[in-house]
């Protein structure tokens, strides 16, 4: 699965317009994502809104990665141009992301100490191929002018820059003079992707202003939605190519990329017997039947089930559609149990019975669902 994130509602809407069969996916902490299919392709994507700023962007990105275990991540939206030769509506694909606010303040002035993240080679190659082939332009709205597509660094800080003569603006242009555009979120997104085994990540920005003091005027001329639409068109074409690329990889290589399989095979010989088979073990371990005095906690068991489901998907024991449907039923069960009412427990039981049917082909997971059902019945 590919996850696509945006900071503003209009950016979100620009991406959303390319998706069909949308449905809400609720995160346990309250974040709402949408799952949808790429129009004309049928491949499923996850879409989320991070809000303004690098810090919230990093938090929501981390949440999306943990929830969906994506194969790649795209951040899509608008930005300000840093140089006069870049036109409104142009699309910038980041080769690097600068977190430009890092530094040290000394008597002689402010010395930059930026963090830098570079786009991974494979994603960069796919993006440049799309640029050469020009097939991505088919996703532009009918009658829309074809914008220029540019590759270069993007600077991400914590302020809205709308000047070319302020001390801050001059310092940015002097210190990061190869940056093409400036914005406020992609450093947080890049940081989260980096901390998740360097997850492939791309930043695609449409130019909506020139960061030169005329932002109010360009916003008034509706350059934000136009620039967001251009960025979304390229991003959706890139997402489609990434899905095809990952799908065509041999299954053996995909498993090797997971570093270590969760599957363990024990062989009993002669009079020996296998007592326990286990891969990676998380949480408490009980061999045999637990004492009757220890009542199982359904909420804790649901959390463990969510972890087991994610590992089963990673090991390719559960396909993508089943994984998503199962996550939805777990979310319904958890939310219903939190009501702490008889009606809530009843709704949780119905969701778990559906879940058990979904996971019937994976005996270990189906057994765990049955254990949760038993635990709920024990507290009725």
Automatic annotation (TrEMBL):
CDD domains: MTAN (cd09008). Transmembrane segments: none annotated. InterPro entries: Nucleoside_phosphorylase_d (IPR000845), Nucleoside_phosphorylase_sf (IPR035994). It comes from the Bacteria. GO terms for biological process: L-methionine salvage from S-adenosylmethionine; nucleoside metabolic process. One of its GO terms (cellular component) is cytosol. Residues 2-238 form the Nucleoside phosphorylase domain. One of its GO terms (molecular function) is adenosylhomocysteine nucleosidase activity. PANTHER family: 5'-METHYLTHIOADENOSINE/S-ADENOSYLHOMOCYSTEINE NUCLEOSIDASE (PTHR46832), 5'-METHYLTHIOADENOSINE_S-ADENOSYLHOMOCYSTEINE NUCLEOSIDASE (PTHR46832:SF1). This is Nucleoside phosphorylase. The lineage of its organism: Bacteria, Bacillati, Actinomycetota, Actinomycetes, Streptosporangiales.
């Amino acid at each position: 699965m590919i996850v696509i994130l945006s900071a503003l509602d209009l950016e979100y809407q620009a991406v959303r317009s390319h998706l069909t069969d949308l449905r809400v996916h609720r995160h346990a902490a309250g974040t709402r994502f949408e799952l949808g299919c790429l129009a004309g392709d049928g491949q499923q994507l996850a879409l989320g809104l991070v809000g303004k700023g690098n810090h919230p962007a990093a938090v929501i990105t981390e949440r999306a990665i943990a929830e969906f275990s994506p194969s790649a991540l795209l951040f899509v939206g608008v930005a300000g141009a840093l140089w006069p030769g870049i036109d409104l509506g142009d699309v910038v694909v980041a080769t690097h992301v600068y977190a430009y606010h890092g530094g040290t303040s000394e008597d002689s002035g402010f010395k930059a100490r930026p963090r830098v993240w570079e786009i991974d080679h494979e994603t960069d190659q796919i993006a440049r191929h799309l640029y050469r082939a020009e097939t991505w332009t088919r996703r532009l709205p009918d009658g829309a002018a074809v914008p220029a597509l540019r590759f270069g660094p993007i600077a991400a800080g914590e302020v809205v820059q709308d000047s070319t003569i302020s001390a801050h603006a001059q310092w940015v242009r002097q210190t990061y003079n190869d940056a093409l555009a400036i914005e406020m979120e992609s450093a947080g997104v890049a940081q989260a992707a980096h901390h998740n085994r360097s997850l492939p990540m791309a930043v695609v920005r449409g130019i909506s202003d020139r960061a030169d003091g005329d932002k109010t005027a360009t916003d008034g001329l509706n350059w934000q939605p136009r620039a967001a639409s251009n960025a979304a068109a390229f991003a959706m074409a890139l997402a489609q190519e990434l899905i095809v690329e990952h799908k065509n990889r041999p299954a053996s290589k995909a498993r090797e990329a997971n570093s270590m399989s969760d599957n363990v095979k024990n062989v009993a010989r002669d009079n020996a017997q296998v007592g326990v088979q286990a891969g990676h073990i998380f949480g408490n371990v009980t061999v045999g039947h637990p004492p009757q005095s220890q009542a199982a906690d359904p909420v804790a068991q649901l959390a463990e089930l969510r972890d087991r489901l994610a590992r089963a998907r990673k090991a390719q024991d559960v396909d993508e559609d089943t994984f998503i449907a199962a996550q939805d039923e777990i979310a319904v069960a958890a939310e219903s149990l939190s009501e702490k009412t008889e009606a809530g427990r009843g709704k949780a039981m119905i969701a778990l019975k559906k879940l058990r049917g979904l996971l019937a082909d994976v005996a270990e997971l189906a057994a765990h669902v049955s254990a949760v059902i038993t635990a709920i019945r024990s507290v009725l």
